[in-house]
Amino acid sequence: MKDQKEVCIILPTLNEEQAIGPVIDEIPRGALEEQGYRVDVLVVDGNSSDLTREIARAKGARILLEPRSGKGRAIRTALEEIKADYIFMLDGDYTYPTTYIPAMLKALEKYPVVIGSRLKGKRERGALRLVNFIGNHLLTLLANLLYGTRISDLCTGFWGFRREVIQALDLKADGFQLEAELLTQIARKGYKIGEIPILYRTRQGKAKLSGWRDGVRIARLLIDRRFRPEGKH
Q: For the whole prediction, is pTM greater than 0.85?
């Protein structure tokens, strides 16, 4: 069908052989296809040394290798080559249930950007350490104060976009400052952000975030982008 719209689900990975199979299996591909969407699952792998790529390929995902380090770099590489009508990005560690994608797609009819909020939703025991919980609240408050937004979970790894939003962004972040940079550019360009409460699960495998150091980097980026002219990084 010429007018059939495409949904692309981007999964950045680095040594996620425990989780990537269940993540892909959980994607509600059948429900999305019944609604008339083509579904593209794109695993952007940071040169894993385990079986992440092999498992993802066996599950029907496309593989894009990005040997340069950093989640932000992986997402930027993926966004440069996809042309889908709707784009979702979420971590490949099984913390974010892909079953929320149909609800987020529905929300994208009203909002150009939708996030899955862990702080409005529920969290499995141990899924979010107290220091990360508090830090995320503080960073979200800082972002809302600086950019006039009203989001509840700045550091969520679950985002959905209309294609025109992605085309308007000029992302530079390589690491875990990606979500903060997304917020700064989306807010400055005037796009409204919707939210869906989600369940946040305990991750499978080793965490890659380094706690307060990444929090400091995120805060610095928020402040820097707010007071630096558009286009200068």
A: yes
